[in-house]
Amino acid sequence: MSHEKVLVTGATGKLGRELVPLLLEAGVEVTAGTRDPERGRALFGSGVEVRELNYARTETYDAALMWADRVFLMPPPFSPDAYEAIGAFLDWAVAARVEHVVLLSGMAMPEESDLPLRRAELHLEGQDVAGTIIRPNLYMQNLYPGFIYRQIRQDGEIRLPAGQEGVSLVDVRDVAAVAARALTESGWAGRSVTLTGPRALDMHEVSRILSRHTGRPVAYEPIEDQEFQELLEADGWRAGEIEVILGLFRSVREGWRKPVLADLEEALDRPPRSFEAFAAELEGVWE
Predict the structure, then answer these.
(1) Residue 132: φ, ψ to 5°
(2) CATH of 5-137+171-195+259-270 given 1.10.150.80, 3.30.565.10, 3.40.50.720, 3.40.50.150
């Protein structure tokens, strides 16, 4: 595949910044699509072609897709308009005759739901193009950096509406590794994989593991949706994004994100990274 080119959309996000180097290591030519090209150039250097790509501006599509054979399609995170945002771009990519689209979706997507990511899955499945759907569980990296990390630093607490159910958190680096294989190997057309970590942890267990590695007490306080909404509003999240995030935590409380599946281990020929290993890598950041 060294002669082929892959367009990575959302290239400067948590997943994209892990995926781009893996593709380069595989000998693939990469275009990094991002709304912030300067940030992309700072991240990836001269070895990666960086193009502006804004789903809301169709005039950015052609340059990003130029000579691309395969596309990693990243919906805007936590967006209630994720389907509308990427639908037109997906149509454009198919018209540009890309060969394969790998769509990032999410775990716990009921087949009959009208959720934006499920609509995106169905849209891809209805296209005349090879498609792969990747459905990860919540990322370990949602705990660092970001909103939850700031809670831990300031108050020694994790305050979330997650109830008492477990979540098989997955390391974003493992998700990137699966995406890289889907984009560089044969046999992935028509496949859907759900990616989880090696075991389900409730937030009390997450807090205990973090406590061991921070050297300071970390506690989990279950809170109601309304209180969490107020915390997110104070942190600058928009109303539509907040509703999506509240929906994610409802799926946690209902047990939809507890299962541990074998898809990741089968794709990578190794076990997924554990939350304990992730926490151990971050010991210094909590001081």
Answers:
(1) -135, 140
(2) 3.40.50.720
